[in-house]
Amino acid sequence: MSQSENEDNLKISILASGSTGNATYVETPGHKILIDAGLSGKKIEGLMNSIGRTLKNVDSLFVTHEHTDHSKGVGVLARRYGLDVYANEGTWGAMGSRIGKIPVEQKHILPAGQVQALDGLDVESFSVSHDAADPQFYEVHYHDKAFAIITDTGYVSDRVRGTISDADGYLFECNHDIEMLRMGGYPWPLKQRILSDTGHLSNEDGANGLMSALGNRTKKIYLGHLSQENNVKELAHMTVQTMMQGHDLAVDHDFALLDTDPTQATPLTVI
Question: CDD domains, from UniProt (predicted)?
Fold first, then answer.
């Protein structure tokens, strides 16, 4: 093992983020975990290999909600690698038979507002407003570092903002450009769903949510869960950057604004 792998740090890679599939890898010296598994086991293994890691060393999987782009690989990975799987009761019930049978000793209930402690790596759950059974996202804490994920919510509540404020890093939703969505080919009921308080954050919503939450500790911001039909990576980045600069925030000086991809993992990075 190289010296860098022995360092006592919190490391993350956004393996995939988008409307077609989501998975985030979190690593400390004591634990390797996934948050969501919304792609096939084969694709997730390939993404892990691309950052020099393997699913064989992952011990735990935290599921945010039952939608396929977050849960597709949950059952396969749990059975193949013996992972401990954490989700709240609503999500377990909604995933049901779609993920197949998982040995009972690998199934763990983690309600919203709770913390799962894993040898110094603490995973804190919090509820969000999304049209799933009981959606929750996670902020991971290790030593004095925190990394928060929020990619499926119609709005950022004061409670969520308080939970994730001043994290060292964020994976934050910028799902759609409002005009692209309004002018696009989606049926009107689907457009209404996406724009609603139980839908997804637009680029502007994401920027405003980030600006209300980030703090002096914040050093890395990943823009995530971009719609393939209603957004463009460059547009999301430009919108967030422009809005932040308009509020006198020193983008790419005080913190880095980073893009994610549905098919390519971000480099494994120390938070």
Answer: YycJ-like_MBL-fold (cd07733)
pLDDT tens digit sequence for 74-92: 999 999 999 999 999 999 9
143: number of Cβ within 10 Å: 11
Residue type at 48 in one-letter notation: M
HEC string of the chain? CCHHHHCCCCEEEEEECCCCCCEEEEECCCCEEEECCCCCHHHHHHHHHHCCCCHHHCCEEECCCCCHHHHCCHHHHHHHHCCEEEECHHHHHHHHHHHCCCCHHHEEECCCCCEEEECCEEEEEEECCCCCCCCEEEEEEECCEEEEEECCCCCCCHHHHHHHCCCCEEEEECCECHHHHHHCCCCHHHHHHHHCCCCCCEHHHHHHHHHHHCCCCCCEEEEECCCCCCCCHHHHHHHHHHHHHHCCCCECCCEEEEECCCCCCCCCEEC
Tokens linked to 260 = 């994610």
Q: With 0-12 CB in 10 A as exposed, 13-18 as middle and 19+ as buried, what is 240?
A: buried
State the residue for tokens 């782009």: 69
User: Spelled out in words, what is the top-level CATH class assigned to the domain 1-110?
Assistant: alpha beta
Task: State residue 6's pLDDT score.
Answer: 57
Listed by start position, the domains of the chain span 1-110, 153-260
Paired residues of 123 in beta bridges: 116, 140
